[in-house]
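Run log // design_07
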């Protein structure tokens, strides 16, 4: 391996560490805000969408821990980056569906995933992730329109 390849690999590892930390912080903030909003209710009994949201947040926290633990053990860091980004697109789609579908305030998360995919994987990776995000959002909207998926109004978790 040349020194330039080693530099690029260590740069990717550093970026992946930042991504894992950012994902962890996002999950903690989402968990905290969900608990805070739910604590304002008279009865502290979570509804089904809230339980699903707690499961999604737990999944994000668990995957962040797993990614961090395997980061130093894996050799193909580009594959790990693709795996994380693809999983993030699915988590974003779930969060959007749970929080109101195409009316959700979390639709801004797709561009965030696309932006950090371009930081990690440059043009080729970001185009792939952008296409995947577009496809997932298209399917979500179509399924809602056809009545296959039922969503609640935003703010009524």
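design_07 sequence
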């Amino acid at each position: 391996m040349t020194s330039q390849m080693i530099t690029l690999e260590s740069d990717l590892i550093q970026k992946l560490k930042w991504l894992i930390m950012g994902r962890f912080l996002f999950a903690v903030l989402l968990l905290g805000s969900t608990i805070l909003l739910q604590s304002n209710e008279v009865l502290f009994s979570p509804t089904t969408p809230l339980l699903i949201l707690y499961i999604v947040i737990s999944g994000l926290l668990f995957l962040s821990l797993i990614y961090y633990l395997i980061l130093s053990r894996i050799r193909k860091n580009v594959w790990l980056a693709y795996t994380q980004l693809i999983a993030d697109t699915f988590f974003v789609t779930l969060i959007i569906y749970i929080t109101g579908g195409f009316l959700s305030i979390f639709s801004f998360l797709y561009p965030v995933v696309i932006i950090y995919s371009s930081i990690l994987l440059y043009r080729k990776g970001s185009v792939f992730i952008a296409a995947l995000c577009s496809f997932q959002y298209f399917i979500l909207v179509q399924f809602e329109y056809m009545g296959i998926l039922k969503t609640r109004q935003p703010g009524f978790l």
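Residues 3-146 form one domain.
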